[in-house]
Amino acid sequence: MWLPVSERAVTEQEASASSVLGRHGGVYVQPGGGAWREMVQASWSHARSNYAALALREQLGLPTDRPVVMSGHQAVLWHPGILAKWYALRAAAGAMGAAAAWVVVDHDTDDLSVVHYPGRRAGILTRAPWRWREPLGSQVPACAAGARPPTQPAGDVAASEHIRSALARAMTTLRAHADEATAGSQVARATADLVGGVAPGLVYSSDMLRCPACDQILESLAADPQACVDAYNAAAVRHPEAGLRTLVADEINDRWELPLWRWAMGSPRQRVFAEELGSQLAGARLAPRAVFMTGLLRSLACDLFIHGVGGGVYDVASEQWWGRWRPADRLAGTAVVSATLHLHTGDSETDAKRVVDRARWTAHHAAHNPRVTGDEPAQARKLELARRISALPKRTAERREAFSELHEFIAQHGRRAERSLAMLRERAEEAARAGKDAADPAGRDWPFFLYPEDELRELERNIEQRVRG
């Protein structure tokens, strides 16, 4: 039995969450916590006697004697909006006597090698990159790259002592997990340590399809790929807001692209076609694409899945596809959780422009005013020449000669102060470059570990209250 969530309800959730969180910050939990318990109980009453569901949970390292609440994200050091899902997951599991599981989407190609932090350069608050390891390479997923010891931040200085300390803690934590098998597991374990408290069980998306319990679904893909692809593409077209690319569907040549990725260590991930599911993919490592992954998890591995705002949108397409392709499956319910925290640095929105404008003005002004470079005698001589010009009658030879003398004096000042003037011009250019990298002084998308601990604890308490209803 397929249990759909109202498309209209999820669309309204997206619109409401985006507008409220974008304008004001805060916490978004939809539906309320009371409905979560009902969804978990309804799903578990079915799953507890479903052999395939219990088998997959066991093979993923999850308990089979109680419900499972699940959420997840890519293997990156994420912002507080994702942290909100972690907090909600932990609160829901505790309130409902369920197990908590976090899906590490390590077959994704998000760049985990760089972390942005509030820096300061030329007096301007910047969005500074900390490249803590070499990039994985184009389209190389986190599961296909080895772990690495982190390098020191080498860019702009941290905007505050708190930011500097937080970066040092992150570096220490990443180093503590440098012996993990992959970059994805290194970041996932480090993230759990940085959050603190009891961590949910970690499930890696790159491992899911290796579980024997998934064989039946893969066999159905191989047996009738057209049914899967036609349903997928219909959902993608009907829900463009989900951002799903339609799969290749070539009925004439019987060629069907499947909602899977193939991956290998050190290599870019590759698309998968139905004709490859036989001997060509023997021993290959497969991972599900996003909507396939959530459909698989909701049909077998969990009793409630907690999305972020974006996931709540694309899951509408996932439900339509899965319901048409596998109408006998029962999908666990979903919730949407997000949050906005502003990291206040004490800067204002106009500070960067003011610094750039001042640096440019100073560089220009210094060429005509020796005082800017510290030459007070020359400044006094310039003012004396200017007063003399003012005292002379206009349109006279004497006044023209005085102007020429002033211009030559300014030119001599430029030659004498050439190094100081060049330094001021370079400072203006550096300020302009820093201005292009200027950060939002009340940014909301910094890595969560950069935010003050008391604000994170308050966020956790707020979410726990909402989840417990």
Structure commentary:
With 469 residues, the chain is α/β, with parallel strands linked by helices. The chain is 48% helix and 16% strand. The chain has 2 domains: 7-110 and 204-344 and 443-468, no CATH class; 351-436, no CATH class. The longest helix is centred in the last third of the chain and has 20 residues, at 397-416.
Give the arrangement of secondary structure elements.
Elements: H1 7-24, E1 26-30, H2 33-47, H3 51-59, E2 68-74, H4 80-96, E3 99-105, E4 114-121, E5 124-131, E6 157-158, H5 161-176, H6 183-195, E7 201-204, H7 215-223, H8 225-238, E8 249-250, E9 255-263, E10 270-273, E11 285-288, H9 290-301, E12 304-307, H10 309-325, E13 333-340, E14 343-344, H11 351-366, H12 376-391, H13 397-416, H14 418-436, E15 442-443, H15 453-468
Parallel strand pairs: 2-3, 2-12, 3-7, 12-13
Antiparallel strand pairs: 1-13, 4-5, 4-6, 8-9, 9-10, 9-11, 14-15
Helix pairs in contact: 1-10, 4-15, 5-6, 7-8, 8-10, 9-10, 11-14, 12-13
What structural category do the secondary elements indicate? alpha/beta
- The dominant shape is elongated
| Estimated helix fraction | 40-55%
- SSE string: HEHHEHEEEEHHEHHEEEEHEHEEHHHHEH
What is the end-to-end distance?
Answer: 28 Å
Number of strands: 15
Largest sheet: 6 strands, mixed
> What is the count of structural domains?
2
Tally the helices.
Answer: 15
Strand order of the largest sheet: 1-13-12-2-3-7
For the CA atoms, what is the radius of gyration?
30 Å
The proportion of residues in beta strands is: 15-25%
| Parts with pLDDT < 50 across at least 5 consecutive residues | 1-24
Average pLDDT for all residues: 88
